[in-house]
Amino acid sequence: MNGLLIRPRIRPRVAVVLVYTAAMCMNGLDSTIVNPALYTIAGDFGRPLSAANTVETAFLVALAVGLPVAGWLGDRFGTKRVFLGALTAFTIASAVCGLAPDLNTLVVARAVQGLAGGLLTPVGMTLLFRAFPPHERMKLAKVLIVPTALMPALGPPLGGLLTEHLSWHWLFFVNVPIGTAAVLLGVFGLREHVEGPEGKFDTVGFWLATPALGLLTYALGFGPSQGWTRPAVAVSAALGSVLLVAAVLHQVRAKTPLLKLRLLADRVYGSASALAGVTAAGLMGVLFVFPLLYQASLGASALDAGLSVFPEAVGLMLASQVVDRLLPRLGPRLLTVPALLVAAAVFATLAIPGVAENAWSVRGLMFLIGLVLGTAVLTVQISGFESIGPADMGQAMGLFQIVRTLGGALGIAACAAVIGGGHVTEAAADPGPYRTAVWVTAGLVALGAVMALRLPREAPQPPPFDNEDAPPPGEGLAADEASAVKG
Fold first, then answer.
1. By Cβ atoms counted within 10 A, which residue in 137, 186, 285, 404 is the most buried?
2. How does DSSP assign 23-64, residue by residue?
3. What 8-state DSSP symbol labels residue 190?
4. Cα angle value 144/149/151 (rounded, 5°)
């Protein structure tokens, strides 16, 4: 061939960015978009609200179940094959959800969505981080922030608007054209990477870790509202905890574990993972409890309460524009610790009597939360993987997502437990418990600031990056972006 290299029309790295963003936007949006429609769904099917809540529970539990095997599947069968397979299943399940003739069909299809979503996030980020060497990942902040922050924040108001002006079926139909286009682009634009896991599949680890995460997610989701002593919740919490302990002990001793827990011994990656769990607990907790406080203090509607936290997403978008500039200059520790301290102070300010009654104060503080906490979260997410080589990237991503998912669930459960299962009615409720729950989230973020002291002052020296997708000298991320613009 005389060295002749025929390049595809769409460069693989551009395809990775486009397909990842589309898929993660669908996944992130679906994690919150259904909540405002649960009352309508229950009414359409003639079922009580408690039955309709299984629509969300099925999604969250199935998502947790998919996380432990994501890294192994990507290494064994290839990240492109697993990612596009999960994206195809997610898209088909979305269509089935929209066409569901009864609640049972909707719940089953929603569970398939969750299972596929549990594979999409870690495998998708593995694709993304394998395609870009560590020194270029800071620029990925602009990509990572859209699905992880903007889409979940858009979910409640968009879900309310679609349900009110069209129907709840469109909450799922919107995924079909986006998912189809992303799959087609991925088929022709992505490159395959098969790492090849060592040894046989860890069957024991699978049967310990998978039900452990599913049972704990179920217990954390229903325990605060239905009571921890309810048999289903109590048994799920106890059995899930036992299985989780057994899973950890097995993973530490196994020669070829399903989850490489030894990666957590790396100071940078281990600290980043722990921080991800704590900050997710604080952020998800405050996004859960503050709309309730807003309604309790002002008697606002659910849509108004959802819109009150939207400036947080705007702040996150701004944070994504500055992290890549600040991180090389300040380093992970100096950028993360002050950001988390300011975020904790802002969280605490939201709990001060009189603050929630002022709509503009709320909007300003929510914007600050997005700006400072988003800066910390993105810094941790980018710098935490600089010491991880391509061979371990799939496993590291899976572990990171498990810790972050459980952290978010624990934060919501903690706030719900403090509230005590109270409900906001047309009459203004006592805002006291809601303010206490906000204080809890402030404490979690402050704890994160202390933990962030373990981060390095400077970015660690990255391991050798050997990737066939990496561009030749002079053709970095800027060249790919220019290619995307030119088409």
1. 285
2. HHHHHHHHTTTTGGGHHHHHHHTT--HHHHTHHHHHHHHHHH
3. -
4. 100
- CA pair distance 23, 56, nearest whole angstrom: 19
Amino acid in the structure at residue 166: L
- Whether residue 133 contacts residue 462, with contact meaning beta carbons closer than 8 Å, is answered with yes
Q: Which helix (H) or strand (E) holds 103?
A: helix 103-131
Structure-token match 């990572």, residue found: 144
Q: CA 378 to CA 405: how far, in whole Å?
A: 16
Q: Which among 191, 190, 193, 201 has a CA at the least distance from the CA of 72? A: 201
CA–CA dist 62, 112 (Å, integer): 7
- pLDDT by residue (tens digit) across 47-97? 665 566 667 677 777 877 777 777 777 777 788 888 889 999 999 998 998
Q: What is the distance between the alpha carbons of residues 63 and 86, in angstroms, rounded to a whole number?
A: 12
Phi and psi based region of residue 259 (left: phi greater than 0; alpha: psi -120 to 50; beta: remaining) = beta
Handedness of CA 469, 474, 480, 484 (dihedral sign): negative
Q: What is the pTM of this model?
A: 0.70
Phi, psi angle pair for 383, to nearest 5°: -75, -25
Cα→Cα distances 320→53, 144, 159, 365, Å: 34, 8, 25, 18
Both tokens of 58, joined, read 């099925």
Residues 220-275: tens digit of each pLDDT: 767 766 667 778 788 888 888 888 888 888 877 777 777 777 877 777 888 888 88
Contact between 373 and 283 under an 8 Å Cβ cutoff? The reply is yes
The count of other CB atoms within 10 Å of the CB of residue 114 is 26
State yes or no: pLDDT of 371 exceeds 70: yes
